[in-house]
Amino acid sequence: DIIPQPLLDQYLSMTDPARAQTVDTEIAKHCAYSLPGVALTLGRQNWHCLKDTYETLASDVQWKVRRTLAFSIHELAVILGDQLTAADLVPIFNGFLKDLDEVRIGVLKHLYDFLKLLHADKRREYLYQLQEFVVTDNSRNWRFRYELAEQLILILELYNPNDVYDYLRHIALTLCSDKVSEVRWISFKLVVAILQKFYANNASALGLNFINELVVRFRHCSKWVGRQAFAFICQVG
């Protein structure tokens, strides 16, 4: 009753490979781009109408189609709610995490927006995978690592101080030694945000351990770049 059935059938047929050959080679991409709007119109109670189409698009051979979905998966998660997201979107999200950088960047740019919608136990599973974002197909793709640092600053609020110390701290230290200065600069802000997290949550022992690690790693570094990094961290703090 929401959308005329012929119109919905026409939309769902956009994933047919024959349509790409005869109508428009970009038709699957157009379908992927419109999907959150169609899902919003139909409502989560009618998600079953779109689920198969979404899964088909998520495994499309064209990376541009998968990239389009990766950039909007956080919006779809809001529309579907936590139960449907956990059941139907998380597996696809996990696939995008292992995809090409062109697809992974879509997930990365809205990583915080997606993770905050998950239950705490499901969210915690991603602590082990966040460090995989440090590695890219092309090491010269420094904006990827910059985006990671920016997202981590937001993501800190989603985890407790012990998890931040055990997992996110290592990523921050790695990014602070990046070859690209822009990545190092945003990473200094991340380090300070981690310290603020510790002290705001009465985890001063973790904060002190982290400060001592920064002193050893950067203040007493044999290279001037390391000592400069320590000075900049102090300046940001």
From TrEMBL:
Superkingdom of this protein's organism: Eukaryota
GO cellular component: cytoplasm
Protein name as annotated: PP4R1 phosphatase
Keyword terms: Repeat
Gene Ontology molecular functions: protein phosphatase regulator activity
Gene3D superfamilies: Leucine-rich Repeat Variant
SUPFAM superfamilies: ARM repeat
